[in-house]
Design brief:
This is Glycoside hydrolase family 127 protein. InterPro entries: 6-hairpin_glycosidase_sf, 6hp_glycosidase-like_sf, Beta-AFase-like, Beta-AFase-like_GH127_C, Beta-AFase-like_GH127_cat, Beta-AFase-like_GH127_middle. By secondary structure, this protein is α+β, with helices and mostly antiparallel strands. 34% of the residues lie in helices and 17% in strands. Among the domains are: 213 residues, no CATH class; 114 residues, no CATH class. The strands form three sheets. Strands 2, 13, 14, 15, 16, 17, 18, 19, 20 and 21 form a ten-stranded antiparallel sheet that branches. Strands 1-5-6-7-12-9-10 form a seven-stranded antiparallel sheet, with no helix packed on it. A four-stranded mixed sheet has the order 3-4-8-11, covered by helices on one side. β3 and β4 form a beta hairpin. The mean pLDDT is 96.
Length: 653
């Protein structure tokens, strides 16, 4: 192999204290806890979960597979996509074996693979709701059925498990599923000219193609993307044939076609509309297929959707989805903080999208957003104990409002044990256990290092890149490049958009290097190279575009990639009485004893006194007395890990 023409990444070991803690937490707490929940063995309550839709404390996800396999009797319980909780958990476990081999866990996962194989129909079909309770309705109501979505999540898990363990059965289940889908879908006579209401199969088939090299899988993924929206009435036609009122999921029949990204062909869609998770899963699939097929129309759609989301529809934390109605996008610049949705799965999906766009083109913007999700929007979804979770991630919360206002009841101010719709916990777990796969992008002879997560990376022919730092609390980033055989390659390092001043030293000498699309590039030919970055980690007081009504007259606090929040735990409630100036003085310190070690920001401001209860509700306006105070802020991802109380990201100015 000529490394000058192509270089391959072999292994990445995450050495970051910050991420090692989370990755070990998943192994020691999250995976065992979630396995107990899915086997109905955990003492949990989801009574406060606004998403439970009548589901009780049981998951029944493993039991559904046992019933489908003939090992138990009974009916299906849960959502039609309940199987996916198991599959995402399996995928997370597979990734964990790469850094924490666990023979006991692998016995469980090998047995789970055997169970899934027994549950799978002879023709490759596997969706337990339809196998157990509605076999006559297979593929008959794709708007709501989540069949391809469900099988897509297994295909992803099966590929990951095969790669981690070499278990051929895991991959065979995935290929049989894909073959079954290929047999049923397409424009040929006798096939279904449709697609699933929830995108996922497109990215799953792309991963299967990447592993197996079988052209029919990427062709099938391409078909699903090109066919979506070609017949806007496809779902309605199926629903009528299946019985108009015979819904699988109540209420979904009346949602607009744009909710499913089915109102028009993708290449004609101009904005990111509908259910936020569906959108970013669709975009991830589009980016995959565009990369493998060279489809320029799909790539153009990726660019349109990316720009609309990032520039008009994304919260400062990276969260997306402005409304609880449909867990969806609304319209440009509509970003309410106290009624927002910001589903954890959507931030995880946005990470997928960003990673795939980096695989297509070296632009720092994609890595900036990936970093924003990793340290803010996605990470907020799990408590520091690994056993409590957020489905919804607000930027402003008040326990009294969540309890007393039905329009805010979806906003929890403490993380829940579990959810009736439990898509988020295992989704976040699989992102954390696979974070080593998000640090580098390799294209030809170029290695892009775009995340500042300490690691040791091994490439072909003994090339190593070792990064050490105390990020995100310190901006001193140290690289050692080892190239004993003196191969020639390029190393690109991201200069994040939040770092206004970045100092670069090569072998101890300060250098001035041009920044191209957010990266500096070095031509590496020597045996060893030392690179040091000093990133600008000053505290920044941020403001939103004046097009964002909800944030007008407000500011937020950011340091490095981390967005900060103020909590009632540290600041006397109510938090709406505080004001800070865009020029306010700030201080920063790292507190190793707080919240498993966090950087703390203090900011000077003022506080207006709270009116006495019972005085006139409205009075002539006068200048209110404002007392000087100092507010304390903690990283947004770490809020709601202490006492239950108010929280705000955007502060009055």
């Amino acid at each position: 192999m000529d490394i000058a023409n192509k270089i391959r990444l072999k292994n990445v070991e995450v050495t970051s204290d910050f991420w090692k803690r989370y990755r070990e937490l998943v192994v020691k707490e999250v995976l065992p806890y979630q396995w107990k929940v899915m086997n109905d063995e955990a003492d949990i309550s989801i009574s406060e979960d606004p998403q439970n839709n009548g589901r009780d404390q049981n998951s029944h996800a493993v039991a559904n597979l046992k019933i489908a396999a003939g090992k138990m009797s009974g009916h299906h319980y849960g959502f039609p996509f309940q199987d996916t909780d198991v599959y995402k958990w399996l995928e997370a476990a597979a990734y964990s074996f790469g850094y924490h081999p666990n023979a006991d866990l692998q016995k469980i996962t090998n047995s789970l693979i055997d169970l899934i194989a027994e549950a799978q129909d002879d023709d490759g079909y596997l969706s337990t709701y339809f196998q157990i309770d509605a076999p006559e309705r297979k593929f008959k109501r794709l708007q709501q059925s989540h069949e391809l979505y469900t099988m897509g999540h297994y295909i992803e898990a099966g590929v990951a498990y095969y790669q981690a363990t070499g278990n051929q059965k895991a991959l065979d289940i995935a290929t049989r599923m894909a073959d079954c889908i290929d047999d049923h879908f397409g424009l040929e006579e006798g096939k279904i000219p449709g697609y699933d209401g929830h995108p996922e199969i497109e990215l799953a088939l792309s991963r299967l193609y990447e592993e197996t090299g079988k052209q029919k899988y990427i062709d099938l993924a391409h078909y699903f993307l090109k066919q979506r929206g070609q017949d806007p009435d496809f779902f309605d036609k199926q629903n009528r044939a299946d019985g108009w009122d015979n819904d699988i999921l109540e209420g979904m029949r009346n949602l607009p076609k744009s909710y499913y990204q089915a109102a028009e062909p993708i290449i004609d869609q101009q904005t990111a509309d509908g259910h936020a998770v569906r959108v970013v899963y669709l975009c991830t699939g589009m980016a995959y297929v565009a990369r493998f097929t060279g489809d320029k129309d799909l790539l153009a759609a990726c660019h349109r959707f990316w720009k609309d989301i990032v520039r008009r529809r994304m919260y400062i934390t990276g969260n997306i989805g402005s409304t609880t109605i449909g867990e969806a996008f609304t319209y440009d610049y509509d970003l309410p903080n106290d009624t927002m949705y910001g589903e954890t799965c959507a931030s995880v999906g946005m990470s997928f999208f960003a990673r795939q766009m980096l695989n297509i083109e070296a632009k720092g913007e994609y890595a900036d957003i990936l970093e924003k999700e990793l340290f803010n929007g996605a990470l907020s979804g799990m408590a520091l104990d690994g056993k409590h979770f957020f489905y919804v991630n607000p930027l402003e919360a008040d326990p009294a409002a969540s309890k007393g206002n039905p329009g805010k009841s979806h906003v929890l101010t403490h993380r829940a044990d579990w959810f009736g719709c439990a898509c988020c916990p295992a989704n976040l777990a699989r992102l954390i256990t696979s974070v080593d796969q998000y640090l580098y992008t390799v294209n030809g002879d170029t290695i892009l290092s775009h995340q500042f997560i300490s690691n040791k990376a091994e490439f072909d022919d003994h090339v190593e890149v070792v990064q050490t730092n105390h990020f995100p609390w310190s901006g001193d980033i140290h690289y050692e490049v080892r190239n004993p055989e003196q191969h020639a390659f390029k190393l690109g390092i991201r200069i994040p958009s939040w770092s206004a001043k970045t100092e670069i030293a090569i072998n101890g000498a300060i250098q001035s290097l041009p920044v191209k699309d957010g990266f500096i590039y070095l031509n590496v030919t020597e045996k060893s190279l030392v690179i040091d970055l000093k990133l600008d980690m000053s505290v920044k007081i941020m403001q939103a575009s004046t097009r964002v009504e909800s944030d007008f007259g407000k500011v937020a606090v950011q340091r490095g990639p981390v967005i900060y929040a103020t909590e009632e735990t540290d600041n006397q409630a109510p938090l709406w009485l505080y004001k800070v100036s865009p020029e306010a003085k700030t201080t920063y310190h790292y507190d190793k004893t707080l919240l498993n070690g966090v950087g703390v920001v203090q900011i000077a401001g003022t506080r207006t006194s709270l009116a006495e209860d019972g005085v006139p509700l409205y009075t002539p306006a006068t200048k209110r007395v404002q007392d000087p105070i100092t507010m304390q802020l903690i990283p947004y991802y770490a809020w709601a890990n202490r006492s239950d109380g108010q929280m705000r990201v955007w502060l009055n100015s």
